[in-house]
Amino acid sequence: MGHLVLVNYHPDSHDLAHEIRKACWKNGASVTWQEKRNSYTRDAYQLSPKDSLREASPIAKALSENLDFIISLESRDWAGWSKGIPTPKIKASSKAAKAIHEIQDRRGVRWLLFGWPHKIAAKEIGIPQKKFEKIMKECILTSFKPASDKRVLRYWRAFRGKGKIRITADDGTDISFSVKGRRCNKDMGYQRPDDIKAKEVGMNIPA
Length: 207
Known about the structure:
By secondary structure, the protein is α/β, with parallel strands linked by helices.
């Protein structure tokens, strides 16, 4: 009741986005939404002067200062959208993006990213659309199974408070990296009160 929710969605997931909006309204939340796709992003970079990309828009700032939740249905449908766009233009927007994320992090805006099997993405990956949909559906269902929780908690306990992680496997994998000083969060498809208290404000589905 009284929360402000932003719903981001790709045109392909319009129906699911509307069900989310209806669920929010039933709970007394205010909802705003944005339709996104990589072709829109490409147009924005191609048409905008570089200087205008450096600063976060007043609309984005005002929204971030009032949001409580962001629910994003995967809008990344085209990995190669930036091909041909000058690198300085891409880099110019990083300052604006950082400013928006800092506002949301300071306020503890909670977020969810929900995966979606887009047709263009399936073509880029090189698998049939039906197979991509099957994989995504199975991953979503697995995210909510007790076995998945146990696996996440096992690694969370193993990594927490450690300085260096080394991963090896029978196929020859042998990689090491530092996690010293980094907070270890749990990605379990849902958030518990102790997660919120620990400032674990984001989650992914599939987890």
